[in-house]
């Protein structure tokens, strides 16, 4: 069936209720659902009373007379005083307070010095520009020519540990100078 080219059904004019108006069917109350709801509510109330102890308001009556008798102490068994707190058998608490831990920390091996290269350029002017932006961050760098003065490397260092080199690399990254690499080089 072609739904795109199908004609729309003609619109019906609304009737004002005089002639030709259809009578609205009256809704009937679903009595089964109403009875079921009443039974469920009664069951819920009964269940809650059962849980609460099953006492109704009619069952609980206030006594008319107030009992003023004091219970007499019989000559039954006498109460013994509580025994004293026993002494602790464990001594680990005192041992832990006085314990001294000795840790043997090996000396950190210092490897070869680290250098950080931040760029390699064909033109010395580009290397000088990068060196100037590094100097604005308070760090000192050098330009090393290589391959018979055809390449110019911008290098920072030497650093004793990689941690020192990483700290300065983070300073450069905050200044948006990326691409610095840390190497184990000797110049």
From TrEMBL:
Pfam families hit by this protein: SPOR
Q: Which PROSITE patterns match?
A: SPOR
Q: Which GO terms describe its molecular function?
A: peptidoglycan binding
- Transmembrane keyword on record: yes
TM segment ranges:
29-52
Q: Where is the SPOR domain?
A: 108-187
Q: What is this protein called?
A: Cell division protein FtsN
Q: Name the source organism.
A: Pseudidiomarina halophila
Q: What is the lineage of its organism?
A: Bacteria, Pseudomonadati, Pseudomonadota, Gammaproteobacteria, Alteromonadales
């Amino acid at each position: 069936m072609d739904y795109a080219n199908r004609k729309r059904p003609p619109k019906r004019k609304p009737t004002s209720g005089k002639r030709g108006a259809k009578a609205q069917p009256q809704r009937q109350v679903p009595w089964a659902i109403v009875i079921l709801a009443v039974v469920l509510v009664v069951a819920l109330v009964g269940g809650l009373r059962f849980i609460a102890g099953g006492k109704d308001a009619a069952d609980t009556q206030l006594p008319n007379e107030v009992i003023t008798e004091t219970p007499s102490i019989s000559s039954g068994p006498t109460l013994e005083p509580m025994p004293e707190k026993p002494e602790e058998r464990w001594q680990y608490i005192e041992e832990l307070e006085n314990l001294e831990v000795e840790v043997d920390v090996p000396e950190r091996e210092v490897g070869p010095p680290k250098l950080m290269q931040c760029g390699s350029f064909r033109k010395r002017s580009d290397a000088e520009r990068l060196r100037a932006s590094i100097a604005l961050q308070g760090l000192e760098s050098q330009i090393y020519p290589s391959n018979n003065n055809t390449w110019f490397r911008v290098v920072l260092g030497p650093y004793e540990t990689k941690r020192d080199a990483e700290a300065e690399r983070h300073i450069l990254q905050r200044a948006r100078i990326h691409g610095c690499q840390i190497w184990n080089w000797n110049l």
